[in-house]
Amino acid sequence: MVSASKAARDAKRAAEGKPAKKTVASKSKAGSKAASGTTTPGELAVDADGNVLPDDEQPATKDMDEVKRLAAQMDKHGLSDRVTTGVLSSLKQSRDVKITSASLVFHGRVLLNDTTMELTYGRRYGLLGENGCGKSTLLKAIDMREYPVPDHVDIYLLNEGAPPSDLGALEWVVREAENEMKRLDDEAERLLEEEGPESPVLLDLYEVRFFQR
């Protein structure tokens, strides 16, 4: 129970715009929470002095960052856990991609060794294999362009849903489409300058750009 004298002191400090002093019990409670690193649901973590920790130091934020890191197959330094090798054997301007001497190692486990990887324009491919054999790891390596895939080849990896955003579903899709249209325009300008108007890749870009309008 708060004494009358303490209540008067707190009221005086509040009138002067000063925060009320923490009691030994409150400091002890805050210190124990900070030491244990635990919080109740909906409660923010605090340090030993009872101050709220920054957003990037909150347990929930750290847990989410850890989940993202593991999903991306990266170590604590942000480096890929995958080791890849490969040589682009097809023409750089070609729509078909052929990579020879392709290898893939994940955490010391050899998934591919001296393999030829061919992706022919217009064809569809599927990966079949047991769980844990490396299907997702291979797709992530391709998506991160750890193999020498030419820049004009678009790569999309549907690994998870859209990230949290203040935009509605339709607005988010429209924004992403606008960003992709701008990227195609920039790539078309680059090809026009470097290879001229007869570039086969440029003609393909114009075709894609036309159907996206």
UniProtKB/TrEMBL annotation:
<keyword id="KW-0175">Coiled coil</keyword>
<feature type="compositionally biased region" description="Basic and acidic residues">
    <location>
        <begin position="7"/>
        <end position="19"/>
    </location>
</feature>
<feature type="region of interest" description="Disordered">
    <location>
        <begin position="1"/>
        <end position="63"/>
    </location>
</feature>
<protein>
    <submittedName>
        <fullName>Similar to ABC transporter, partial sequence</fullName>
    </submittedName>
</protein>
<dbReference type="InterPro" id="IPR050611">
    <property type="entry name" value="ABCF"/>
</dbReference>
<dbReference type="Pfam" id="PF00005">
    <property type="entry name" value="ABC_tran"/>
</dbReference>
<dbReference type="InterPro" id="IPR027417">
    <property type="entry name" value="P-loop_NTPase"/>
</dbReference>
<dbReference type="GO" id="GO:0005524">
    <property type="term" value="F:ATP binding"/>
</dbReference>
<feature type="compositionally biased region" description="Low complexity">
    <location>
        <begin position="22"/>
        <end position="40"/>
    </location>
</feature>
<dbReference type="GO" id="GO:0016887">
    <property type="term" value="F:ATP hydrolysis activity"/>
</dbReference>
<dbReference type="InterPro" id="IPR003439">
    <property type="entry name" value="ABC_transporter-like_ATP-bd"/>
</dbReference>
<feature type="domain" description="ABC transporter">
    <location>
        <begin position="112"/>
        <end position="154"/>
    </location>
</feature>
<feature type="coiled-coil region">
    <location>
        <begin position="167"/>
        <end position="194"/>
    </location>
</feature>
<keyword id="KW-0677">Repeat</keyword>
